[in-house]
Write a structure and sequence with these properties.
Length: 371
């Protein structure tokens, strides 16, 4: 009797185990279904994303098509307006022609003006229609114009600051080549001005500064052969003493008249002078005088190096005055040096150079009009 209360518990446990065994296949099927759904969902998501992307692209294309349609409508309206204006102008022309021959030449002039306006409008329309095709077919060489502008400006600075004619000519030739390569049909006037300015530069006679410097240095070397007035006076005194001694010997052997003439000749010395000397130098002073002449020539050489025309002219003028004042002018050395100094004094160290502003300003106006 004591084991009876345990029997219901055992039966309930057996029934629970039987129900659990019965539910296990169903739960497995549900799990498989869930897995299949997840796999299908994962495969469907990329397709859904592709559809969304294609839909977005289609919307964008529709917007662009609408924008193109609006642009075409605006262009069509513009063309329609231009055609209406042309028709109105033609009607005005017809009315003016039908008003009678009283207006005469004024009517014909009006008709000519209207026709010209019509042609101008048609040309503008043609340019607008061909602008995009021209831009795509032809390369943009606008930078060639800017390159030519830079080269011409640099050539002008070379002339103004350095007076370098050769470099300026080379830069202008490069600028002309850049304009030729630009393919622009409006550069003819600029190239013509560049050609004219280049010819003006070539026509300028530039001074060989090195040659002038060497010629002045050669004069300084020849100055050692100049006879100064001091040496002329010494030669004259030596010659007078020789003549006096010779006349004293003859006077002892001649008559009273010869003795008298000899006495007078010993007192008065007759000599033919080409000119009256401005100064007679003291003994030993010729060294310092020649050093002064050499300093004048050194100043002239310094002026050649620095390009100082005023110092150059002043130094050579002082050198000429020195030669005429202290040198014996009836010698070959003095005449040669004076002639050389005169030729050098006529040289302009800084000849005037033409300006090249015209081509630069014309090219800048062309660039501004092209932009």
């Amino acid at each position: 009797m004591a084991e009876k209360p345990d029997t219901p518990k055992i039966l309930s446990e057996i029934s629970k185990s039987n129900t659990a065994k019965a539910k296990t296949p169903a739960s497995r099927q549900q799990q498989k279904a869930r897995r299949r759904f997840i796999i299908v969902a994962m495969l469907f998501l990329p397709a859904l994303a592709g559809v969304v992307f294609l839909t977005y692209q289609q919307v964008q294309l529709r917007r662009e098509l609408l924008a193109f349609q609006q642009d075409s409508q605006i262009l069509t309206q513009t063309l329609t307006g231009q055609e209406i204006q042309i028709q109105e102008l033609q009607e005005q022309l017809a009315e003016s022609l039908q008003s009678g021959p009283a207006e005469g030449e004024s009517t014909q002039q009006l008709g000519t003006n209207v026709n010209q306006e019509i042609l101008a409008i048609r040309q503008q329309l043609a340019e607008l229609q061909n602008r995009y095709t021209t831009a795509e077919s032809e390369p943009n060489l606008q930078w060639k114009l800017l390159e030519a502008e830079y080269l011409i400006g640099l050539a002008g600075k070379k002339l103004q600051l350095e007076r370098d004619r050769a470099s300026a000519l080379a830069l202008m030739q490069s600028a002309d080549s850049a304009l030729s390569q630009s393919g622009n049909s409006n550069v003819f006037a600029v190239r013509e001005v560049i050609s004219r300015e280049s010819a003006q530069l070539r026509a300028v006679q530039m001074v060989d500064l090195e040659g002038v410097y060497l010629r002045i240095a050669n004069i300084a070397l020849q100055a050692e052969n100049i006879n100064l007035l001091n040496s002329m006076r010494e030669n004259f005194e030596n010659r007078r003493n020789t003549e006096s001694a010779f006349e004293e010997v003859e006077s002892s052997q001649g008559s009273f008249l010869n003795a008298t003439l000899s006495f007078l000749r010993s007192i008065f010395v007759w000599r033919k002078w080409d000119g009256i000397p401005e100064a007679m130098l003291a003994s030993g002073q010729d060294i310092y005088i020649k050093q002064t002449f050499e300093l004048m020539l050194e100043q002239a050489k310094l002026a050649v190096v620095s390009g100082d025309q005023n110092l150059y002219q002043t130094s050579l003028t002082n050198a000429m005055d020195w030669v005429q004042r202290y040198a014996v002018m009836d010698t070959v050395a003095a005449e040669t040096i004076l002639t050389e100094i005169n030729e050098l004094a006529g040289i302009d160290l800084n000849p005037s150079l033409p300006l090249i502003n015209e081509s630069l300003s014309l090219l800048r106006r062309l660039i501004a009009s092209e932009q």
